[in-house]
Request: fold
Amino acid sequence: MTALRLVTTVLITWVVLIVLLVAPSALLPQRWHSYVYSPASVGLWLLTAFVAPFVVCVAYWPWIRPSSRRPRSDGARNRTPQVRSTGPDTGSEPSPPGGADGAAST
Reply:
């Protein structure tokens, strides 16, 4: 799923860049074409075509890479860990001398 989203993001970025390269020819007068499609402009566009996908992937990384903190379907992450004891449960405090009621034995 992550690879598919990554490839989709790069392809959409390239399509947008191609549309931005071709759009001025339909929108601007003919005399502007020599300025828009000059070697410097096309060189900058090529540089952008190589750099922009990385920038877009960094910007959309939360969408591309889904969170790994989602709970599992079997609920294993929501379980409390079981602590195994090695012997009988004696409690955390020792019992007072003379038994549990505190009376001294004779």
